[in-house]
Amino acid sequence: MGRGKLRIYLGAAPGVGKTYAMLSEAHRRVERGTDCVVAFVEHHERPRTEVMLHGLEQVARKELEYRDTTFTEMDVDAVLARAPQVALVDELAHTNVPGSRNAKRWQDVEKLLAAGIDVVSTVNIQHLESLGDVVESITGVRQRETVPDEVVRRADQIELVDMSPEALRRRMAHGNIYRPDKVDAALSNYFRPGNLTALRELALLWVADRVDEYLKQYRSDHRVSKIWGSRERIVVGLTGGPEGRTLIRRAARLAEKGAGGEVLAVYIASSDGLTAASPKELAVQRTLAEDLGGTFHHVVGDDIPAALLAFARGVNATQIVLGVSRRKSWQYVFGPGVGATVARDSGPDLDVHLITHDEAGKGRGLPVARGARLGRSRIIWGWLVGVLGPAVMAVLLNTIHLGLANDMLLFLAVTVAAALLGGLLPALASAAVGSLLLNYFYTPPLHRWTIADPKNIVAIVIFVGVGVSVASVVDLAARRTHQAARLRAESEILSFLAGNVLRGETGLEELLERVRETFGMESAALLERAGDHDPWTCAGRAGLGPAVQRPDEADVDVPAGDHMALALTGRVLPAEDRRVLAAFAAQAAVVLDRRRLQEEAERARALAEGNRIRTALLAAVSHDLRTPLAGIKAAVSSLRSDDVAWSEEDQAELLEGIEEGADRLDHLVGNLLDMSRLQTGTVTPLIREVDLDEVVPMALVGVPEDSVDLDVPETLPMVEVDPGLLERSVANLVENAVKYSPPGRAVLVAASAIADRVEVRVVDRGPGVPDEAKERIFEPFQRYGDAPRGAGVGLGLAVARGFAEAMGGTLNAEDTPGGGLTMVLTLRAAGSRAQELLHPAEPERQVT
């Protein structure tokens, strides 16, 4: 059985209608005879959503007990046993209750897909893992329930459920999303027009990028070379000159005028050495392009206009921006230039913009090394001089007789000119034509193809030899120039590549993409295997071409190590390109090794941190836990002894010591377990709305009477917390404050509301803590000052802060006016957007 297909309804915010769309799709499939079940859909007690569930088979949920409360989650095993064709699973980013089969619901969905079951699910854009920082900057709330982007990207279908901010706010105001008592708070906080507009843009852009990936894949699979102007992509052709900055800025302005415009700056390092570029200037232009939201590409091409057009068509560009040529007027004799050639060959699907700049017409600044050894125009002129030059010279010499020696020197000058212009072949042609004309017109007997004097034969042979020699020297010089230019282009690329790799700025996928772009290939992959007879695996890949399983399946493969190879598909590369490709392969192996070393270093750091905590834990256990155990054992042994008759008062004192030791053990073990949960990341708060006056008094049960003054007004707003975690946090703070307060000075626990937050302050009159130690006291296994060993293992404040942050709050230390320390615990007030984001409720579609 194959893998199931995943369809996702993506929305910008709660309430746009994702669940309604999913249920409507389910009804359509059931009507077509598809076996479809509801694995998990939350209707939030709304009649219209509940009506949409009628007629659909629902798999019973699994009940789980957590913190004396019963929760229901999707029963993955039951769905697998039922084995439907399609399963509906709402809220893909949901975090399951502890005790579930998997920690996250998307992991449950992966199990269903692996079993061949198609899944239809929903998710909001703010729950994508990569957008966490962006969403937090927009809404002010950090998303704690996320789903990896790759899970959503792998979906077979992604459908955007869109709604304008105004329509969504009207739906909220009508009570179709949240309960009436939450509407005002939601409209003034999370559902502000600005928030909704920004989130909507994020969703639209993310889906647009996904659609663009589909389009690239389709064009690659069907080998579509014609440009489809579905999105404005502007390619900026750079020469490495200072005018590049002007071109990039102009292209960025053009991109801003179109929806979703994209700028791609490309520098083509010509293998024929066309105008060398300054690496420093290219680095500046690369930074400028990236700062303006574009990308920079470095490509090698023998023909600059053809390479530029091939790149533009390869990325499905719609416009090309070029600068007006820097050549002077007389230089146009050698050809129309890159701009005119690109404009001529671009066709109707590419617009070409020629931008004026300050460097136009000022000259190239550096001599031009002609391509293909000498260049097309010089070869043409060489043939004209080599073939027509001797004939013109013969006509002139027929009117002016200078003698055979002078005639031969003039014909030799024409041959040398042909060699300087066109190289070897035009010079050979000139020597051949010239020798025939010399023989016919100027060597006795005249007007015959014979030579009477043997000395004239030697002269003509020398004439031909000199012409061939000069032509050979010119051709060799041209080849050396061509090779030097190519090596210069290669060295620029390798220098740029090595710098990025050594600085750690290039990942494996980025490096493979650079390889693919540089050589104009469809795909590039780094393959590796453990041994000579083991199967190949893909360590990294770039491009949309067909995936290769072995190096011999690729068009080009280069070894990158003992059991590693770089494989490229698209075309066969010439031998001279393989030298650069081998360098790329070696760099790819280095990048892969560095990535793995970094991963091993991260694991080593995690192990070292774990060892540090375990060492501190053992050090704490060696005394702090052994002391109460020793006291309990001594008291029990004394009570069981038959040698001493204990009075009732003595027995009561011993029993009290046993109870105190047991309480102390219970507290220490509880803190150790809590710290372990925080270190391993297994603390999952169950947020709900509670009153502080219900939780805070329960946290004071373990402290002596009259040691705490409580000031929690009943008029405070409710807070969104996990009651159990809040109770443990406050209990640890109060215990710490009581421990350091002087006798007769009660600790004050007060609460107050500030904006959308509620602060709980635990104030003591103890010795206080200097500013430089205020953060250190929250680290595990830290005791401040000369606190005795029996004062605890130094976990209370660390646990309190960990629990506070897990609930979305903060815990900080401040000085108490007049002396002492104040612990400030800040919590979210009810209606401050957190609950809606953690468990978003889906609205029903309006029925009119």
From TrEMBL:
<dbReference type="InterPro" id="IPR005467">
    <property type="entry name" value="His_kinase_dom"/>
</dbReference>
<dbReference type="InterPro" id="IPR006016">
    <property type="entry name" value="UspA"/>
</dbReference>
<feature type="transmembrane region" description="Helical">
    <location>
        <begin position="457"/>
        <end position="478"/>
    </location>
</feature>
<keyword id="KW-0547">Nucleotide-binding</keyword>
<dbReference type="InterPro" id="IPR003852">
    <property type="entry name" value="Sig_transdc_His_kinase_KdpD_N"/>
</dbReference>
<dbReference type="InterPro" id="IPR003594">
    <property type="entry name" value="HATPase_dom"/>
</dbReference>
<dbReference type="GO" id="GO:0005737">
    <property type="term" value="C:cytoplasm"/>
</dbReference>
<dbReference type="Pfam" id="PF13493">
    <property type="entry name" value="DUF4118"/>
</dbReference>
<dbReference type="InterPro" id="IPR003661">
    <property type="entry name" value="HisK_dim/P_dom"/>
</dbReference>
<dbReference type="Pfam" id="PF02518">
    <property type="entry name" value="HATPase_c"/>
</dbReference>
<dbReference type="InterPro" id="IPR014729">
    <property type="entry name" value="Rossmann-like_a/b/a_fold"/>
</dbReference>
<keyword id="KW-0418">Kinase</keyword>
<dbReference type="InterPro" id="IPR025201">
    <property type="entry name" value="KdpD_TM"/>
</dbReference>
<dbReference type="Pfam" id="PF00512">
    <property type="entry name" value="HisKA"/>
</dbReference>
<keyword id="KW-0808">Transferase</keyword>
<dbReference type="InterPro" id="IPR036097">
    <property type="entry name" value="HisK_dim/P_sf"/>
</dbReference>
<dbReference type="Pfam" id="PF00582">
    <property type="entry name" value="Usp"/>
</dbReference>
<dbReference type="InterPro" id="IPR052023">
    <property type="entry name" value="Histidine_kinase_KdpD"/>
</dbReference>
<keyword id="KW-0067">ATP-binding</keyword>
<dbReference type="InterPro" id="IPR004358">
    <property type="entry name" value="Sig_transdc_His_kin-like_C"/>
</dbReference>
<dbReference type="GO" id="GO:0005524">
    <property type="term" value="F:ATP binding"/>
</dbReference>
<dbReference type="Pfam" id="PF02702">
    <property type="entry name" value="KdpD"/>
</dbReference>
<keyword id="KW-1133">Transmembrane helix</keyword>
<feature type="transmembrane region" description="Helical">
    <location>
        <begin position="380"/>
        <end position="397"/>
    </location>
</feature>
<keyword id="KW-0902">Two-component regulatory system</keyword>
<dbReference type="GO" id="GO:0005886">
    <property type="term" value="C:plasma membrane"/>
</dbReference>
<dbReference type="GO" id="GO:0000155">
    <property type="term" value="F:phosphorelay sensor kinase activity"/>
</dbReference>
<feature type="transmembrane region" description="Helical">
    <location>
        <begin position="409"/>
        <end position="437"/>
    </location>
</feature>
<keyword id="KW-0812">Transmembrane</keyword>
<dbReference type="InterPro" id="IPR038318">
    <property type="entry name" value="KdpD_sf"/>
</dbReference>
<feature type="domain" description="Histidine kinase">
    <location>
        <begin position="620"/>
        <end position="831"/>
    </location>
</feature>
<protein>
    <recommendedName>
        <fullName>histidine kinase</fullName>
        <ecNumber>2.7.13.3</ecNumber>
    </recommendedName>
</protein>
<dbReference type="InterPro" id="IPR036890">
    <property type="entry name" value="HATPase_C_sf"/>
</dbReference>
<dbReference type="InterPro" id="IPR027417">
    <property type="entry name" value="P-loop_NTPase"/>
</dbReference>
<keyword id="KW-0472">Membrane</keyword>
<keyword id="KW-0597">Phosphoprotein</keyword>
